[in-house]
Design a protein that fits this description.
Layout lengths: L2 E5 L2 H7 L14 E2 L6 E2 L4 E5 L30 E9 L2 E5 L9 E4 H8 L10 E6 L4 E6 L6
Antiparallel strand pairs: 1-4, 2-3, 5-6, 5-8, 6-7, 8-9
Amino acid sequence: MSWKAQAICVDCWHRAHPAHRAPAREDGPQDRCVMCGNETRAGLYERLDTEAVPFPAPDYDDPFDRPLGYDYEVLPDGRVPVWIMGGIGDQARAVTPWRKHDNPATLSIAEIARDAGIAPGEVVGREFFAAGDEHKLTDFRLKHDPRK
């Protein structure tokens, strides 16, 4: 199953949503309706399963369909990007260049907060740079520090 925003023409929109008037225009980008295959410039898009439509849109690399940190790599200067995706107690679940969303690293929220100079409650959801390697990360700094 692959859900993506896909173009749909006005006629197919009305068949799918009979109680709603399509907020369509005629100057939208040239697309092909995923339901009937006709060309459309309606500018209407619906998030649909690409396996469930007769004319799926070609697959494209949409950066908004990828999770934060999917492309993390150690920077040339040695800094390691880290995103704290969640936390349980003092344990942060982190995305790093070596550990992705499906198998996050476990780090200390207290250590990250101390290094970055922020409250522990502000750690989750933030991006940091750290020093170290896949076995140990230290010296956490906010990636987007509003204090600087």
